[in-house]
Amino acid sequence: MKFTHTVGALFAAAAVLLAVSGGVAYFLYRISRERAYNEKWKDYVDCGLA
Description:
By secondary structure, the protein is mainly α. It has a domain at about 15-50. It has 1 helix and no strands. The longest helix has about 45 residues, at about 1-45. The chain starts with a helix and ends with a helix. Keywords: Membrane, Transmembrane, Transmembrane helix.
């Protein structure tokens, strides 16, 4: 009985850790993509074409 409770708690902790790390990875991905996009179009914004 205690073993299944421990396994369940470990599984829940692993799921939460996976969800948090996935969220952080997605956030960092979005920041890097936005930064690359802005860098690509920076010259066009300065000259008024965009």
